[in-house]
## 1
Amino acid sequence: MSPAEPVRALGATVLGAVRGLGRFALFVLAVLDAGARPPFRLRRLVRELYDTGVLSLLIVCVSGFAVGMVLGLQGYNTLSRFGAEESLGAVVGLSLIRELGPVLTSLLVAGRAGSAMAAEIAAMVVTEQLDGLRMMSIEPLDFVVAPKALAMVLAMPLLATLFVVFGIFGGWMVGVAVLGGDGGAYLTTLEEAVAFWEDVVGGIIKGVVFGLLVGFIATFRGFTARPTTAGVSAAATSTVVLASVATLIFDYFITALWGY
Amino acid sequence: MRESATRELWVGLFVLVGLAALAWLSFSVGGVESLRSGGLQLIATFDEIGGLKQRAQVVIGGVRVGQVKKIELSDDFRARVTLDVDDKLQLPADTSASILTAGVLGDQYIALEPGGDPETLQSGEQIQFTQSAVILERLIGKLIQNLGGNSGGSSQ
């Protein structure tokens, strides 16, 4: 083994990563191009919205409720030390709307729907269904990929909003119904602390960006999967890992840029 | 065909519920009411507003009657605060405004104290009598200074 071997391997890894990023960017452009021109696959979009949106509803709502309950409990115990229990609504609402709602929804949806999306496309690669579509001169980017990515972008902010609403309800449940805080103060401090432009719109922007990330990473990983059985599982796994890490990293930058 | 019809129904419901949640967050919790400014707009100028923020409460005798709409610096470098108050209120012209703090660490708010003038304040008018926020640090600083000065004087 020549002494230059480790250096060569390092260089190959870096070049591979940069090439992968370039392929991803070109893929995103091609999907946007295919999705922006007719025919618009509305039927396909509805079907994908059902798979990513409706089927994720239960897990998102239950998780939101549970997270709200934990926030309510932790917040109540901490705030009551300073005699500030009435600020519980503000604590629960702000942490959910700004951070926890969009981020946790994105992680959940990446695991629930993103992995399925990648595996489905990867299985179509393995069974040469995409080539079959091309033979019928149907562009797979237009017919398969674009509706899936768009459905993710549309569903994510709605799911994140539902997560937040259920979380606020969960916090109310623990802080007011169980621990006996003031229900009026919970809602008043919530309404006072949450600003429409900074908080609500910022949360929606996060939802849309996370939807783009998860949607495009899942479809890209599926579309470029190796045509083997192992390739299908690798696509699903790397989708969840990449989408989760990308969500957490982008979360920081959106928060910093939106100017909280 | 029937299967796809139920699926469409579910997707429609999903979008509807999501948008309803969004509307609740925006209008009720987020308070887009700042766009709607139907209330009485009063202007009060303070030397010091401390930690007063936009959307802080405006109360009379502890009852919430409005919120702080805008905070800006006036031409003579004082804090010019615009209050959005319930327009049903007939406030006397000599009403005074003071900035108070809820509890020791709580949020700051503006308390209005109506006077006895038969004239009433109209929208866009200035509140003449204002009392600035009490800055706890300065108060403590003064206290320490006084105590230090006294004990220093007695020991020498």
## 2
Amino acid sequence: MAAVGSACLFVGLLTAVFAVGASLYGARTGRRRWVDSSRRAIYALAALLVVAFGLLEAAYLTSDLSFQIVTESSSTDTPTFYKLTGLWSTQEGSLLLWGLLLSIFSSAVLYATRRRLRDIVPYATAVLGAVATFFLALSVFAESPFTVLATPPAEGNGLNPLLRHPAMMIHPPMLYSGYVGFSIPFAFAIGALVTGRTGADWIRATRRYALVAWTFLGFGIMLGALWSYSELGWGGYWAWDPVENASLMPWLVGTAFLHSVMVQEKRGMLKVWNVSLIVTTFVLALLGTFLVRSGILSSIHAFGASTLGAPFLAFIALVLVGSVVLVLARLPALRTEARLDSLVSREAVFVGNNLVLVGVCFVIFWGTFFPLISEAVTGTESSVGPPWFNRYVTPLALVLVLLSGIGPVVAWRRATPANLRRVFAVPVAVAAVALVTLLLLTPALESVPSLIMFTLVAFVLAVVGQELWRGTTARRTMTREPLPVALGRLVARNRRRYGGYTVHAGIAILFLGVAASSAFVDQRDARLVPGQTARVGDYDLTYREPTARFLDDRSGTGAPVTFGAVLDVRRRDGGQSFVLRPSRNYYAAPGADGAGGTFGRFFEGESTTEVDVRSGLRRDLWTAVQPDIGALSGAIREANRRFAGVPAEAQALILAAIVERYRRDAPPATFRTLVSPMIAWIWVGGSVALLGALLALWPTAAARSRRVTSLYAARLGRELSRA
Amino acid sequence: MDPARKRKTRAVVLLTVALLLAGALIYTSFSAATEATTPSQLVASAEPERSYELTGKVVDGSVSREGERLRFAVRDRVGQTAIPVVYEGVVPDPFREGREVIVEGRVVGGTLMADRDSLVTKCPSKFTEKQGGQG
């Protein structure tokens, strides 16, 4: 099995190299058959990688411990969902996943463009084949997922407990789909530059892929934030950690790209900017993939020196330098077709949006790589923390939200005062009303940035609402449809536009949640014994009693021991009362004679926080508990001493007794509680943005009929020319 | 002003603003940063009232809890020079003796008084997803 898998990878590598060679040869000599062959090579590559992937998943499902990666990240008692997804928690598996997704996306775009863009496609194929070659070479020569152990162990390590959360396991495929997705427009941009066909064709052919990539990447980032909030013990969703930043940077530049290509399509401007942006996005995507598995930055993820550091950096440098040289060489072909007429125009707003997004990306880049920069400049390694990031990103985010309200409605080329009055009168009024309401009825003034953000959010939502209203009423004057039908048909016929508006609304709502939950969060840490009460925000939390469970993991992650607490919560102004049950899962340290002894090892392995949150539209009450198991150390030592040699069934009984001791003795436990106002709106806003993106992506009936008719027209043309 | 000159002026203004902002950013990053150090560096020459970021491994057997406080010692990755740390706040899930940690704080009388919630523990295995917590 492993041999078949390795063969698939090796043959895949050869296929990718062939694709590069054949497409370049075909492009140079004009021999279409070679180009077609290179395309089929990519299809073949996808098939081979699917087989390799399937073999590995089968190994995981059957817990075939002769595979090294199965032993590292799975075990016979890992729940099935985590068995299947554990593949990409390993270095080798995640590289294979990258290659697999790349080959699938490449196959899709090459199939879709098999009869179009005949000049550009061969070079795009070559670029995609080259990237695939790189990842496959890593898989074949450096980090093979098919490494077999000479003597398979009796049991695997199991999936890292911190990863046993659905969001965290879907997160990597989403991110990689995003990174891979951006390689498609990149490849076509390179093709456009090489052939000199620098019009908007390459953009139109790959626009959908760029949007798909953006959607996946954004969704992946959201999942990561959601995981941080609901699985980690600190109650936040974003820490400006290097790995978080590594995924956010390509997304920001990708967002800029999605906007600026619209200007090129409409007015033939920003050509150099667009190719530079997509090159930057792709390089940042590679950098993101690299950062997470390298040792260069001191963060949660820095593991000594990784063997992949040098090849990755070399590849990134090659891509960057090659692209820059190509752009400079083709500058004449990238001359702009039009000029910016007025600063009050949609083009100008889009340029502004781009500058802000690139600015935010620069801030994050600088802060993330600052340890390396400061070491190079001053000799000592220093780092900057979240306050520095927040200080610079916040004002830029405010400008971004403002522009997202202005952009959709301001006219192209030059907006007249009359036009401005017409489109902005209502939204500005709504924003003013919102501002006054906030000042009078809420404590929003305590945080001026939040106040400004709330006002701008009101502005953006008013713009979106106004556009929906105007479009619907305009339609109704002609068709006399009932309101919901008119709205539905309006949106269905202009999916790109209204999808985009929905995304803007979603992002605005997301920023509403971010601002409110950051500025007005109430946090309290307390060490309580049963019966004691802690106060946080408007809530009183009473530690009623401890809980202890053995082989009864409610979170579905397979933890043998769970200690927790039952908290009675009451809102101070006589409101609802409810119960929260935060807990902590304890996983056994691997190996029968691991640290802690026969029984102690159940408490010495990894442990994870199982948070309990009461979510609401107005606020979330978040709690985590840190039980003090030091009180059990005496009992554990006793058990180790006296019962080390007893059979497994008796061991289980003794362990259950130790676990029960925690519940009986009820030592004090440390609780962290947070009241985060409106934090749920972050997830709501993200979902709305996701829906907007899906709406914009959805093919319309008109587009489909256009494709069919154009196919018939082409066929007819061929017939006629032959006659 | 003819359009070409207007465009040129706009470009110059934009570039100047961008450079000024970038300059401010770069300047403040150097002054707002905390220096990364190892235990032997801190033990040898720690300035009082200065914020440091300590990286090293948790010494086996040094972890003890007193109420809300966590006490442990951090040693160099290779070597035995260790510095005691007093910490309050969230303890990340992977925290364990022998693991690599990053913690920020000030040195008072030979002990690092850590900033609240600044403890970060590095992932134990070669490649796993993000872990740990910071305030």
